[in-house]
Amino acid sequence: MRPAMTCANCGRQNPPGALYCLDCGQKLRTDGSPSGPAFAASPAVEPARPAAIPCPRCGTSTNPAALYCGVCGLPTADMHAPAAAPPAPVPIVAPPPPVATPPPPVAAPPAPVLVISPPPAAPFALASSVAPRPAAADRPEQRTDNFGAVHAAVAVPQIVTILKDGSEGPVYRLTNAATDIGRHEGNITLPDDPYLSARHARIQRRNERHYLRDLGSVNGIFQRIREPVELHHGDVVLVGQQVLRVEVLSDGEVSLGPVMHYGVMLFGTPEQPRLARLVQLTSEGVPRDVYHLYRDETVIGRESGDVVFTDDVFLSRRHAAFRLDRAQRRVVVRDLGSSNGTLVLCRGERELLDGDIFRVGHHLFRFDAAPRGAVAGAGTAGAAR
């Protein structure tokens, strides 16, 4: 006769042949042999048990006083005891003929009855045995652990890829304190993007906030602006496919005045008071065209504006405007409701807010502080209208 199995977790003596402890559900053995650290042999003790109930999972007769099935570990709370035999039919006896009786005296009001609420369900009872579960669309996201306990899922911030047609692509959950993005190194690697550095950018979590910063990459990080932004000398702006560097003119360049050559004034286009210029940067690594900002506001677009790029299908008809503050010698850029937005090269570290859109290399991402459904038109990267 096999010895009883003593649970190494709670010390209960289980009947011979049991694979799981009847009190705590701890697995007693894995290979069927009496050796192993999970149990110890002890004299066979078989306590008296009430009528056994069959386990719906493995069919083994199980003591209803136990907490788990001894063979498969199923909690006995999930088992249902066999229904009791129906009571024997009671013979129907014809009632006696009615007898005239005096009206009964008025009875006193009944004494109050104390109603005791039933005890709460056991901790391991399934929620379905207490109340019906809400529909999937009405309940929050849930997860279930190894013991069947249901917990509400924690909302984890994420970045969502915005594809060229404006739809959503791969989603990356920001579960680490620091998430690095790169071409070959980091938590998110994008080897098909030749404009990414090996380790390009980092999203850092501090005090439940997320911050984006460049890791010394070649092309930097561009972030889409939500409101007018002041630009400084050397700032780079991305509109459509045009990469424009802002250069604030020095005092000597603001107004050069007419040029005299051998006492003769040089003939040319009349000069205009200017404050800054936009230098078009190319993939060849050298500037191409230069656009001086001499108007109070200079509009850039694909069809209408002061500076027009008719071949850029990613530009809107009127895309962005550069406004001059001559008194303060400031340049401010604002988006004109374009389809693809106006992006500015990040300097230093910036906090990411819900819905912020940024670009690294050829990849466009949207930061979601909490998972949400697709938002139409957010981060559209397709051809502009």
Keywords:
single chain, 385 residues, mainly beta, ten-stranded antiparallel sheet, five-stranded mixed sheet, 1 helix, 29 strands, 1% helix, elongated
Mean pLDDT across residues: 78
Give me the Rg, rounded: 39 Å
Q: What's the tally of helices?
A: 1
Helix proportion? under 10%
Structural class: mainly beta
Q: What strand line-up does the widest sheet have?
A: 9-8-29-28-14-26-16-17-20-21
Q: What's the β-strand tally? A: 29
What distance lies between the first and last C-alpha atoms, to the nearest angstrom? 84 Å
Cα shape: elongated
- Taken in chain order, the helices and strands follow as EEEEEEEEEEEEEEEEEHEEEEEEEEEEEE
Descriptive report:
By secondary structure, the protein is an all-beta fold. 1% of the residues lie in helices and 32% in strands. The chain is built from 1 helix and 29 strands. It has a 10-stranded antiparallel sheet, with no helix packed on it. It has a 5-stranded mixed sheet with strand order 11-10-12-13-27, with no helix packed on it. It is elongated. It starts with a strand and ends in a 17-residue tail after the last strand. The model is unreliable at 32-45, 113-140, 143-152 and 374-379 (pLDDT under 50).
